[in-house]
């Protein structure tokens, strides 16, 4: 009983655990109100929306082969004429990153998959779409000037459409929440579900006092600001100074979320004197962050992975996803404003206050779990949902 589909981004290269952390945090939350034996999980890849309608993707292949320059417009027409796989499920979860982007008429960096999602859900009105951890990807400078100035009529229309097909909207940052609030659309504001990924995997905080700082960085500032292979010489020089200074005070462990990120850092910086790790599994990823004293990272889900195990972090960012960190109460900086001296000073302060942060983050998790469970029980109306599933 209860077939749950998770819409999930499958990285095209190497292994990127960010979406996995969100997905497994959501799984843990659902398991708190529904017995695990009642849940059957399947993944529908964001990068292959054809599989939402056509199990083998044969129509998708035909469209790509015949009309490679018109794939998405054609597919949006083809999808309207085919059976919708989402009709087979009871609950849909989104674990594919921000649904709200700025500067693209399709509201997505790569393709209008989010518009196809709205269409698919309109064809499946019985499906409960739990829009947990909804976020944005807007320029930081634009957010400071006011979210309202960034939005076009198309953005606003899309937000209304997305809200209409969602059983509940839980925003993971204030930027997204203010966007819905400004349009008088109901939404909740809670930390990202990735805060519970460690609980799903039953990874516990390290025993005793950890002895290293987990460091994740990108030579272009962030992956968003520079792309997968970007490089900023000024920031790279600043990073080298930061690593040298911190390396004289603490043991460092450099944690890269994918092999390409590590290769780029190796070419741009001298990192041979420190331990370098590219986690091969989500459990290893969580254990590395959870066993650190503090973390300094350019990935928001690196911060959430650490926070899930009581480890405080300093986060560097380049877009509105950085505001996710506000809900944890942890420090964060726009990468262009992050001088080496300022970063080192904040890391030193986190080290000095690490024990206090562990207690605060644990209390935050307990409060957040209670809030999520309360919201989900109310939205799903568990007893009624079980009866309707039982009778078909």
Summarize this entry quickly.
This protein has 392 residues and is α/β, with parallel strands linked by helices. The chain is 45% helix and 15% strand.
Characteristic key phrases:
392 residues, alpha/beta, Rossmann fold, 2 domains, six-stranded parallel β-sheet, 45% helix, globular
Description:
- With 392 residues, the chain is an alpha/beta fold.
- It has 17 helices and 14 strands.
- Strands 2-1-3-5-7-8 form a 6-stranded parallel β-sheet. The protein has a 6-stranded parallel β-sheet with strand order 11-10-9-12-13-14, with helices on both faces.
- The longest helix is centred in the last third of the chain and has 27 residues, at 354-380.
- The model is unreliable at 10-14, 104-111 and 383-387 (pLDDT under 50).
Largest sheet: 6 strands, parallel
Helix content: 40-55%
Can you tell me the CATH topology of the largest domain?
A: Rossmann fold
- Give the N-to-C terminal Cα separation: 10 Å
Could you name the ranges where pLDDT drops below 50 across 5 or more consecutive residues? 10-14, 104-111, 383-387
Radius of gyration: 21 Å
Shape: globular
- Average pLDDT reading: 81
Provide the number of structural domains.
2
Beta fraction: 5-15%
> What is the number of E strands?
14
Strand and helix layout:
Elements: E1 3-8, H1 18-31, E2 40-45, H2 50-53, H3 58-66, H4 71-79, E3 91-95, E4 100-101, H5 113-122, E5 128-134, E6 136-137, H6 140-145, H7 153-164, E7 168-171, H8 174-182, E8 188-189, H9 197-201, E9 212-215, H10 223-226, H11 233-249, E10 251-255, H12 259-268, E11 275-277, H13 282-290, E12 294-297, H14 300-307, E13 313-317, E14 332-334, H15 340-352, H16 354-380, H17 382-390
Parallel strand pairs: 1-2, 1-3, 3-5, 4-6, 5-7, 7-8, 9-10, 9-12, 10-11, 12-13, 13-14
